[in-house]
């Protein structure tokens, strides 16, 4: 009996030694302990929650900038269209003035050829007064009309007749280059409106990208939240690894998206 007890005791001791070695071996094989997994999961949960809040905040700023830029672009476009319509009216008005002036020029040149002094004087007088009241500085410069010289009372008729010998005086000033000057301000305003609209479109696209980043962060949060549900350590590590991949992808993607040019803490 004593020997049997001794043998049983030895078997138990051998078994305990083997189990201890097995536990140590298993502990060495284990990459992360249960406690370490919990700590890492909690830390990642906190970091992911903060990044989710940040992405949501920046995305909302992009959304606000988009609305602001769209409204500003609409106002600029409206102003530009008003200026464009005003330019069209001014151009039409000045073309009418040129038609009247060119009519006086023809009468003067005809009277010169006919040597009709009275007709020359009459049409010169009409031209002087009409030009004085209606001719713009831009058009006067374009046709070479010197209002100061032609109305100083010193040989005005002769000065105008000599001026009419210049081809510049009898050629329409409405070249494409001159016509474009009427629309300079309107085109500048419309171009500005287009630039602001494009910025609004960019803000819209960036806001959508930040929304996608928020979704990816939410997936990472979900996975981190269910890590503790799994009893098997291997399953926990797999879910944790997938959540870390999602987190890294979201961070990298977020870093490629431009920050807002204004709004919130960005000025």
Distance linking N and C termini: 91 Å
Mean pLDDT: 86
Biggest sheet features: none
- DSSP helix fraction: over 70%
The number of helical runs is 10
SSE run: HHHHHHHHHH
Number of strands: 0
Total number of distinct structural domains: 1
Anisotropy-based shape? rod-shaped
Poorly predicted runs are 22-29
Helices and strands: which structural class? mainly alpha
Oligomer: single chain
For the CA atoms, what is the radius of gyration? 44 Å
Please indicate the percent range of residues in DSSP E strands (runs of 2 or more): under 5%
Model description:
- There is one protein chain.
- The chain is rod-shaped and about 115 Å long.
- It has one domain.
- The chain contains ten helices and no strands.
- With 267 residues, the chain is mostly helical.
- 83% of the residues lie in helices and 0% in strands.
- The chain starts with a helix and ends in a 12-residue tail after the last helix.
What's a concise summary of this model?
The chain is mainly alpha-helical and 267 residues long. 83% of the residues lie in helices and 0% in strands. Helix 2 packs antiparallel against helix 9 (184-225), helix 2 runs parallel beside helix 10 and helix 3 packs across helix 6 (156-163).
Describe this protein with a few key phrases.
single chain; 10 helices; 267 residues; mainly alpha; rod-shaped
Per-chain topology:
Blueprint: H1 2-29, H2 34-114, H3 117-134, H4 137-143, H5 147-150, H6 156-163, H7 167-170, H8 176-182, H9 184-225, H10 233-255
């Amino acid at each position: 009996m004593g020997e049997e007890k001794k043998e049983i005791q030895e078997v138990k001791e051998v078994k305990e030694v083997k189990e201890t070695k097995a536990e140590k071996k298993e502990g060495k094989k284990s990459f992360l302990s249960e406690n370490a997994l919990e700590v890492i999961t909690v830390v990642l949960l906190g970091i992911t929650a903060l990044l989710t809040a940040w992405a949501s905040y920046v995305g909302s700023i992009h959304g606000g900038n988009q609305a602001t830029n769209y409204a500003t672009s609409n106002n600029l476009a409206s102003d530009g269209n008003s200026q464009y319509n005003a330019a069209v009216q001014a151009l039409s008005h000045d073309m009418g003035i040129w038609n009247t002036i060119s009519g006086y020029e023809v009468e003067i040149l005809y009277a010169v050829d006919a040597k009709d002094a009275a007709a020359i004087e009459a049409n010169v007088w009409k031209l002087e007064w009409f030009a004085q009241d209606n001719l713009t500085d831009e058009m006067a410069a374009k046709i070479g009309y010197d209002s100061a010289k032609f109305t100083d009372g010193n040989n005005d008729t002769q000065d105008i007749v000599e001026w009419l010998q210049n081809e510049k005086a009898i050629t329409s000033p409405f070249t494409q280059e001159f016509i474009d000057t009427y629309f300079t301000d309107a085109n500048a305003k419309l171009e500005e409106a287009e630039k602001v609209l494009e910025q609004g479109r960019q803000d819209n696209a960036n806001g959508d990208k930040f929304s996608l980043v928020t979704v990816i962060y939410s997936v990472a949060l979900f996975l981190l939240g269910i890590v503790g549900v799994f009893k098997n350590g291997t399953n926990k590590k797999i879910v944790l690894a997938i959540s870390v991949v999602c987190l890294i992808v979201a961070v990298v993607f977020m870093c490629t998206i431009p920050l807002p040019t204004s709004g919130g803490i960005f000025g």
